């Protein structure tokens, strides 16, 4: 009987340990697992982000360029009362002499870990750390961008989004940010760092525009709805495709008028005003 009890305890212990590290890649060094165990909360699980694909919960990057890579750890603390949001956290470890120390951490209440990765947003040759969590299906995600300063991280930007693309632009990375309007429509911005903040990059937007157009063409081919034309016109204005934008505004306005939607008609009038201003500025 004692053997059975001991066997049960052993099996339970193994299952519990495997639950803690179920998300860790088998190729991750066992040494890192031992290091991580010392720093993550006892009630947490290591968790991989949804993006970038195949990213592991333990990542390494040499932020201060001293030849010794720092360690980034992502974890989840599940809410006691499901389906309440969990706590998703990030820990930054740095090796000093022969010991690892925790120099930074943050936690966010969320329903998912959407992004955890590195990209050179500022163009200084050193990657920033990007941490994105899911607020909810309707609210979308929130991205925070952290830059290494001195011995820790400093947040330099916050970006709400529903979908996100990272674009290589010369020596730095731009963000193509899709924010939901209504249904399955999105306003799209392409943002780059100007030395102080993220701003709209019209030139890069024009290069990215064909992807936006393919998206809306596919939607319109299935349902000719005003909201697709509205968001497409917004994208065309940002890409300085003024003739195309005029056509989209006209088609969307006609559909809104047929449905007797005065608020939507007014929105299209605002797009027309933007179009006129663009035409004047391009003379």
Characterization of this structure:
With 283 residues, the protein is of the alpha+beta class. The chain is built from 6 helices and 13 strands. The chain has a domain at 1-116 and 129-134 and 142-151. Strands 1, 2, 3, 4 and 5 form a 5-stranded antiparallel β-sheet that branches. It has a 4-stranded antiparallel β-sheet with strand order 6-7-8-9, with no helix packed on it. A 4-stranded antiparallel β-sheet has the order 10-11-12-13, covered by helices on one side. Strand 2 and strand 3 (70-77) form a beta hairpin. The protein is elongated and about 70 Å long. The model is unreliable at 1-26 (pLDDT under 50).
Short description:
It is built from six helices and 13 strands. It has 283 residues and is an alpha+beta fold. InterPro entries: Integrin_alpha_N.
What is the succession of H and E elements?
Answer: HHEEEEEEEEEEEEEHHHH
Shape: elongated
Strand tally, please? Answer: 13
Q: What is the number of helices?
A: 6
Percent of residues in helices comes to 25-40%
In what range is the share of β-strand residues?
Answer: 35-45%
Determine Rg (CA atoms, Å).
Answer: 24 Å
Distance between termini?
91 Å
- Identify the quaternary structure here: single chain
Biggest β-sheet, characterized?
A: 5 strands, antiparallel
Unreliable runs? 1-26
Mean pLDDT: 90
Alpha-beta content class: alpha+beta
